[in-house]
Design a protein that fits this description.
This protein folds into two domains: 5-119, 2-Layer Sandwich (Nucleotidyltransferase, domain 5), CATH 3.30.420; 133-279, ATPase, nucleotide binding domain (Nucleotidyltransferase, domain 5, 2-Layer Sandwich), CATH 3.30.420.40. It is 34% helix and 22% strand. It contains nine helices and 15 strands. It has helices at residues 44-59, 99-103, 120-131, 188-199, 206-210, 217-241, 256-269, 283-291, 296-303; strands spanning 5-11, 15-22, 27-28, 34-37, 67-74, 78-79, 84-85, 115-119, 139-145, 149-155, 158-159, 176-177, 180-181, 245-249, 275-278. The strands form four sheets. Strands 1, 2, 3, 4, 5 and 8 form a six-stranded mixed β-sheet that branches. Strands 11-10-9-14-15 form a five-stranded mixed β-sheet, with helices on both faces. A hairpin with a 3-residue loop joins strand 9 and strand 10 (149-155). It is globular. The two termini are 34 Å apart. The mean pLDDT is 94.
């Protein structure tokens, strides 16, 4: 029987989400969505059992004879070519572990399912460029703004991770910015830290600030400052790559109405003109992107880049 399905799995610091996807259409089967929670500091056994719980739930809802394998959207550092975790900050107890060997015995299937891996931000970008806001554009840049600052550069649907047109590994988080690195300015902790510094009050996250700008001058100014900073950071990489569209995902993307004008104004002053849009697929984009790794033709293009990540 022809393999028409694959499972996409999005690995976060607190939960796994997975679903079956029609490989060639990218249609996510919502009835197969499954989720399990954990703490990334837990033991390897606990984490893997949580992953298996979610995957087994999805497996139970499909005809596994149609299943080509499982694709994982997973943070780095990670040996994506060989499936070995190199993370020491997150998932430190998975360090050095060959994920397929450790996970397969926990799955409720007799099949030896192939497992393929890609950076989580890259997987999100693959999904968006294939079937989301990047559809129809040759060069797409995707950023995710949340607990950290993720990014990916996509050309003809495939992540670009080396060459003169993109920063190292297609990543922006590590680039020097002001007195630190970009990740410290374009993540939730920047808003929390700046608001505390300027007001003496603690907030839990950006959502707490989104209702305040009409009455809170500090909140309003923080969003404007964030927009200007983001333009200052992104203008050169966007111009160098020649991107036609910038897609923004992550929790902070919901605040685009509060910083978008300042951001676009900053890009325009730097001579950068492109579409700026918020992801519509949200978390589903990473599932679709990771599931696509089981399309052998697509995997051939992506895997050629993996040694450079």
């Amino acid at each position: 029987m022809q393999h028409t399905l694959s499972i996409g799995a999005d690995i976060g610091g607190t939960h796994i989400t997975c679903a079956a996807v029609k490989i060639h259409e990218g249609k996510l089967l919502t009835e197969t969505l499954s989720r399990a929670t954990y703490n990334h500091e837990s033991s390897a056994e606990t984490i893997l059992q949580s992953w298996a719980k979610a995957l087994n739930n999805t497996l139970s809802k499909i005809d596994e004879s149609q299943l080509a394998g499982i694709g994982f959207a997973i943070p780095g550092p990670f040996d994506y070519q060989n499936g070995i975790s190199e993370m020491e900050h997150k998932f430190k107890n998975l360090f050095g572990l060959h994920i397929p060997s450790a996970l397969k015995p926990l799955l409720d299937t007799q099949k030896d399912l192939p497992m393929r891996f890609l950076n989580d931000a890259s997987s999100f970008a693959v999904g968006e460029s294939w079937l989301g806001e990047g559809q129809g554009f040759q060069k797409v840049v995707v950023i995710t703004l949340g607990t950290g600052f993720g990014s990916a550069f996509i050309e003809d649907g495939v992540p670009v991770v080396y060459g003169e047109e993109v920063p190292k590994e297609g990543c922006l988080w590590h680039l020097p910015f002001k007195d630190s690195i970009a990740d410290d300015y374009f993540s939730t902790r920047w808003f929390i830290g700046e608001y505390l510094k300027q007001t003496g009050f603690s907030i839990l996250g950006v959502k707490d600030l989104m209702d305040k700008p009409s009455t809170d001058a500090v909140a309003r100014d923080l969003f404007l400052q964030f927009g200007q900073n983001l333009a200052d950071c992104l203008a050169a990489p966007l111009q160098k790559f020649g991107a036609s569209v910038l897609i923004i995902g992550g929790n902070i993307a919901h605040a685009l109405p509060l910083f978008g004008d300042k951001f676009s104004e900053g890009l325009a002053k730097a001579g950068v003109s492109l579409n700026v849009v918020v992801s519509r697929h949200s978390e589903h984009a990473a599932l679709i992107g990771s599931a696509r790794l089981l399309d052998d033709a697509f995997w051939g293009k992506v895997s050629a880049q993996l040694p450079n990540i």
